[in-house]
Amino acid sequence: MLKRTVLATCTLNQWVLDFEGNFQRIHESIRIAKERGARYRLGPELEVTGYSCDDHFLEADTYNHSYDVLARLLKSKVCYDVICDVGMPVMHAGTNYNCRVIFLNGKILLIRPKTSLAIAGNYREGRWFSSWAQHPHMDEFILPSSLVEATGQHRVPFGTAILITEDTSIGSEICQELFNSNSPHIAMTSQGVEIITNGSSSHHQLRKLNTRYSLMQAATLKTGCVYMYANTRGCDGERVYFDGASMIFLNGELLAIGSQFSLEEIEVVTSTINLDEIRSFRSNLKSTGLPLSSDLYSKIYVPFSVSTSCSLSPSLPIQIQYHTPAEEIGMGPACWCWDYLRRSRQRGFLLPLSGGIDSSSTAVIIANMCELVFESFQAGDTRVQRDLKRIITGDPASEYIPLDAKDICGKLLTTLYMATKNSSQETQDRAKNLSSDIGSTFIVVNIDKTVDSLVEGFSQVTQKEPKFSAHGGSKSENLALQNIQARSRMVYAYMFAQLSPWAAGKGGSYLVLGSANVDECLFGYLTKYDCSSADINPIGGINKIDLRGFILTKQDKYPSLKSVYNADPTAELEPITKEYTQTDEADMGLTYEELGDIGRERKIKNCGPVGVFTNLVPRWQHKYTPKETADKVKHFFRAYSINRHKATVLTPSYHAENYSPEDNRFDLRPFLYNTDWEHQFDLIDRIANSLQSHYNKSSQPLPSILKSKPDISNITSSSSEVRAPQNILTSPVKSTPVIPTPSKVKFTSDSTTPDLKTTPTAPKSILPAKKVSQI
Ligand SMILES: Nc1ncnc2c1ncn2[C@@H]1O[C@H](COP(=O)(O)OP(=O)(O)OC[C@H]2O[C@@H]([n+]3cccc(C(=O)O)c3)[C@H](O)[C@@H]2O)[C@@H](O)[C@H]1O
Ligand SMILES: Nc1ncnc2c1ncn2[C@@H]1O[C@H](COP(=O)(O)OP(=O)(O)OP(=O)(O)O)[C@@H](O)[C@H]1O
Ligand SMILES: NC(=O)CC[C@H](N)C(=O)O
User: DSSP 3-state assignment of 55?
Assistant: First the structure.
């Protein structure tokens, strides 16, 4: 019989500090891996503790509990005859490390600390761990008593060694190390390593999976090896969703991949490898100059063979199928909400549903969640069955069997439309029809009395009666009257969340869902502590354009979404008159598409106001002159800085977008700015003036201009003379833009709302997907 190597990589839905649950899932995954014939089992990064423990990684308890879990695994016979590669924190010589612990038959072979920590974006590993600076130096780890008792060992190797088994060699790198330019797999494979393992905890972000895929494909194509990748799945206690998709590659080709979005807690993916394929592949690489072996890494000899004689055929390459961004929006937040709901032990969701795109998207995401739950229930997932029964009836062993996804939605989701005299029948009908399409429980309540009595209370004390602008009131009055309605909705939402289960004869409470999207959070186009102040927000990290794309794809399934899609986004907080209907884009003086452009420049490209402006001049030149772009950018930064304080209290949101303004974990900024930006705006004006004169004169053809970016090297804010840059701009654009320029907009520091009453909004469009890679 031929020698074959079966390798298993595991996706686990772990939960921070749930040491018992985490142990059970790791143990079960090892059992399944062995059952499938695997002789090497890889698990995700920090699977023993859960990845998102954050400052709990500063507690000695966390390390001690992890040693307890490791000792149980070491002692279990289920974990024998397979090399187990488990992720956990280890405290070595008074320093904390994010490690792999690799063991076989009750003995620890190696503790391998992470050498490059993840510290960008959502990641803060440097706050809790040190990177293994001695790399590739080895040390000895003195085992604590619980591990001495479990293994009979007193000291084990600690560092970045490679394992030499009887039949092959294995080296590990940990998550971020793959993303770096000096990834260990390069030196390891040049030293002859054939199997690279990577235990990861990598979060979902729209359009990101291809980054991981490309890195592994390139790594294995350039070096010739097997690459095993294990990722965490689910909401383990934080705003991010880890999106699984554990993979196995061989020589540039994908052999296996787990699901990216699923409710399954344990998923084991295996591949059968013929190691000779690596050797043959490398023979070809050598002839094209594969680097010679350098003995950089210490070797640990393991008297064990990961290959066995078996009749299994080697796994064949498969094609990766990427989800579209709309599918990702439908799946990722839905899975995250399910984890949140079952782990928070609440009884369902309460969603203030306005009939607009944002709250409708949230409703559809929960409907998707119900479909996933129904499918898993039908497929016999006992964990999902118990969770659903507990949430709906209070008893995990109840007899309840759902009829379909709509039945579940009716029990898990209550949608609440809160009408005032400024609401229209259209929005109420849209909310009602969508609720009926998805099957949620629908409630309408009129909140005028509450709003009126609040205003009356004010008037009694002050003898003044505030009025809307439409009735002759000032801007302050107009804003205050809007905010009273918006904030009253928040109070109603929490009241219904708390009392609806009681009214229905159940115990417990519902979680309030929020629906502010990433763009309005960035601009601050929301009332502080209105319905945007919820328990969790599934779409707070998703931009309006992507949400529109999502709603578009769901129209066939839920026909009521057609009118949701076609309606202009509106707050309905002001009286509708013949001359005026409130719309978001006119209110903000920027389209959602423009907010996305600015948001990406600000956050992803790390640009200040001047950088944003100079980058957008060529990009927007088909519609705006440099001065108009300057006005838009200044308008944005003024609103952003006035409203940044709102980001400090944003509802915790699913992280999906790299330009998220999320203030607590992701986009760390001050919340008290000088909103005049004198130095920056002065420079923008100077540059705009110099470009404007050039813009009027130049006859340069448009296509070449589109590629260029202003050269501002000659312009400084202190220079009295401003020279026109050499490489720009441009012939005047034929048509003038329809969007209002904020230069005409009056903007006072007590409001986010410019004084625009009759401006047309931009045409709606679905942008081509912008690929934003993040590592
Ligand atoms: N730097 C700072 N640090 C901390 N707090 C600061 C602050 N500056 C102002 N504040 C405070 O912030 C508050 C002002 O903010 P806020 O009350 O939100 O009110 P404000 O931002 O003035 O108005 C709300 C805006 O949201 C818009 N909007 C649009 C669509 C829908 C909805 C909706 O809610 O449904 C709302 C509405 O048209 C208006 O433009 C005041 O209490 C003020 O004292
Ligand atoms: N009439 C209403 N009934 C119930 N909830 C409402 C109503 N109006 C607003 N809300 C809630 O307040 C949130 C913020 O209101 P806003 O008018 O800013 O809507 P939005 O952000 O444009 O979202 P949407 O597209 O859902 O209208 C909404 O997402 C919704 O959850
Ligand atoms: N845990 C990590 O090392 C994360 C690394 C990487 N930046 C990612 O998003 O996948």
Answer: helix
Residue whose CA lies nearest to ligand 2 atom number 16: 571
Catalytic residue among 307, 354, 560, 653: 354
**Is 107 in a helix, a strand, or coil?**
strand
| CB contact burial 693-713 (16+ within 10 A = b; e otherwise) | ebbeebeeeeeebeebebebe
Query: Given this model, what pLDDT does residue 583 score?
Result: 82
Q: What is the predicted pLDDT for the residue at 696?
A: 62
In the structure encoding, which two tokens stand for residue 680, read together? Answer: 């920056």
Q: Crossing angle of helices 609-620/678-697, nearest 10°?
A: 20
Is 338 found in the same domain as 310?
A: no
Burial, 611: exposed, middle or buried (Cβ in 10 Å; 0-12, 13-18, 19+)?
A: middle
Pairwise CA distance, residues 626 & 423, whole Å:
39
Domain membership flag for residue 747: no
Ligand 2 atom 31, closest CA? 352
- Report the atom number in ligand 2 closest to the C-alpha of 571: 17
Taking residues 713-731, what's their average pLDDT? 41
Residue 218, Cβ neighbours under 10 Å: how many? 12
Within-domain flag for 729? no
Catalytic residue among 29, 53, 99, 114: 114
Structural domain includes residue 717: no
Instruction: Give the confidence band of 339 by pLDDT, cuts at 50, 70, 90.
Output: very high
Taking residues 507-535, what's their average pLDDT? 94
Same structural domain, 395 and 246: no
CA angle 516, 520, 523 (to 5 degrees): 145
Q: Residue 772's pLDDT is what?
A: 37
Instruction: Give the closest residue to 85 by CA, choosing from 176, 12, 190.
Output: 12
> Does 154 have pLDDT greater than 60?
yes
pLDDT at 774: 40
Residues 129 and 161 in one domain: yes
Ligand 2 in reach of 531 Cβ (< 6 A):
yes
| Separation of alpha carbons 602 and 597, rounded Å | 9
Average pLDDT, the chain: 89
Rounded-to-integer distance, Cα 258 and Cα 43, Å: 13
> Cis peptide leading into 136, omega within 30 of 0?
yes
* CB-based burial, 22-46: b 16+ in 10 Å, e otherwise: bbebbbbbbbbbbebbbbbbbbbbb
Backbone angles phi, psi at 311, to 5 degrees: -95, 5
Average pLDDT over residues 435-463: 98
Which domain does 382 fall in, by range? 326-649
349 and 403 part of one domain: yes
Q: What pLDDT is attached to residue 333? A: 98
| 175 flagged as catalytic | yes
Distance 329 CA to ligand 1 centre (A): 28
Tally of domains in the chain: 2
Nearest-CA residue for ligand 3 atom 3 is: 176
Q: Is the CB of 175 under 6 A from ligand 3?
A: yes
Q: Taking a C-beta distance cutoff of 8 angstroms, is the pair 523, 643 a contact? A: yes
The three-class DSSP label of residue 647 is helix
ipTM: 0.93
> Which ligand 2 atom sits closest to the C-alpha of 361?
26
Judge if 331 and 296 occupy the same domain: no
Expressed in angstroms and rounded, the spacing between residue 480 Cα and the centre of ligand 1 is 9
Taking the centre of ligand 2 as the mean of its atom positions, its distance from the CA of residue 379, in whole angstroms, is 36
Based on the residue annotation, tell me whether 20 is a catalytic residue of this protein.
Answer: no
Q: How confident is the model at residue 703 (pLDDT cuts 50, 70, 90)?
A: very low
Residue 486 lies in a domain: yes
Cβ–Cβ < 8 Å for 747, 716: no
CATH number at residue 32: 3.60.110.10
**H or E stretch including 451?**
helix 448-462
Q: How far is the CA of 745 from the centre of ligand 3 (A)?
A: 43
pLDDT value for 574: 85
Among 612, 629, 649, give the residue marking a domain's end: 649
**524 and 419 part of one domain:** yes
